Amino acid sequence: MLMPSAIFLETSSPAGPPLLQVHDQDLTSLNTLGLRSRARALVRYSAAEQLPLLSELASHYDTAMVLGGGSNVVLAPQLDCLVVKVESRGIELVDESKDAWIIEAQAGEVWHDFVAHCVSQGWNGLENLALIPGTAGAAPVQNIGAYGVELDQRFHSLVAWDLHTGRLLEMGPDDCRFSYRNSFFKQSEPGRWLITALRLRLPKAWRPALDYPDLRQHPSLQEGAAAVTARRVFDAVCEVRRRKLPDPAVLGNAGSFFKNPVVDAAAFSALKAAHPDLVAYEQAGGRAYKLAAGWLIDRAGWKGRRLERVGVHDRQALVLVNHGGADAHDIQRLADAIKADIQARFGVALEQEPVQVR
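RE: above sequence
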């Protein structure tokens, strides 16, 4: 159920660019893991005027799947649904107060390009989220985050189309039910919602977020708070990510494959006693701790290991990679083996981030 604050909006007339349906579409190049996959049909969405036609088309399929940059999905070898590829573009300053800017991005905007544009305009606050793969429309689904900043901290509202009822809604933070790498959209019926636009509130009283060691210790950010600019943080984040993470265009991957697990204080104390160098971050005033999943996987000896066509990246244990020709069964077999090993060694359950699409 939607929260009461959701607002229904008037829809546009069904005119605009035509919806071109492609049957038996190869999706291998449309997911960053590079997994072999085909869709029964694919249609490209680029303008709000297409939404009523899109709902009409989707009604002829059992379900639909909304695809942005393909960076957070594990696609089955064959998808019998209608795949909606989101390609709408546009960035706009839609409101301004003495305290903040409200920036709107159309759903198909490449997330990193959007962050770079905001930094270049002096709309600061997203720089820690640079180089996260994917699109603006997919960002709130996952409640993306990195280096101490999460999307919900900058979120203002979004506009979403209900493919089932053919209604356009404006949704605020309460409607979206954000939590760690989670939102209303991940819990809702698959294929029902198409986020068409994202609005973020970027504060004018900007302060750098440098809590994570990679940034706090970065050479370019050592000259005192007054000398640290959003551009410097942006550049540092890009440098760190490029150094640690593989480029999906070169080596197929979906970024961090597992969430950092949260355990209670008692479990943390027991783990810390057995593993004094355990990496963890205090939560809820010491009542819980977020463990570094990458540390657990590395300590278990998985970093750099390969299982036929897939493996664990040799510089970042959180990243599973496709060495070529893999499909969802290959990547899932590896993920399941890692989860079982971490559970057996540490008593900790890992949860994968990318959505399994069957």
